[in-house]
Amino acid sequence: MKKFIAIIPVMMFTIFVGCSQTNNQKNTEQPKVDIKFETTTHDFGTITVNGNGAFDFTFTNTGKEPLVLKNVSPSCGCTVSEWPKDPIAPGAKGTIKLKYNTAIIGTFNKSATVYSNAATNPVTLHINGTVVQAPAKN
Fold first, then answer.
1. CA dihedral 83, 87, 91, 96 (to 10 degrees)
2. How confident is the model at residue 135 (pLDDT cuts 50, 70, 90)?
């Protein structure tokens, strides 16, 4: 019984020392997968009705493993998105196209959320501008 009582403090000491260990090393490694956009906002300025409301957002996979775009979700039905469905290799570039319906006259400010396997997830892309009636022809 005396041996058992003597072992208890040794076990307690071992548990406290083991639990107090922390890892103070900072992770300075490059993320395994990350995405970097050249720009996340595009201003069309003024566009005439049924004009070109499309813009390509260029991005790069800055990680060490393939980047997979899971979904690009526009904020409303007046904006359509196109994106690569195949994995993007490390260091490779890709584009996400957002196209606004320029048949709608007036100011617009729309966004699309990009979901991927990147460390920077999600990313929001923005497009804005004003659609005006085409000038009358003489």
1. 0
2. confident
Domains annotated for the chain, with CATH where assigned, are 35-132 (2.60.40.10)
Q: How many CB atoms lie within 10 A of CB 25?
A: 6
Mean pLDDT of the chain: 84
Helix (H) or strand (E) holding 42: strand 41-48
**What's the Rg (C-alpha) of the chain?**
27
Please state the pTM of the whole predicted model: 0.73
Secondary structure of the chain: what % helix, strand, coil (to 5)? 15, 45, 45
Mode of pairing for the β-strands spanning 41-48 and 123-132: parallel
CA dihedral 6, 12, 15, 16 (to 10 degrees): -130
* SS3 of residue 9 by DSSP: helix
Dihedral sign for Cα 82, 113, 39, 35, please.
negative
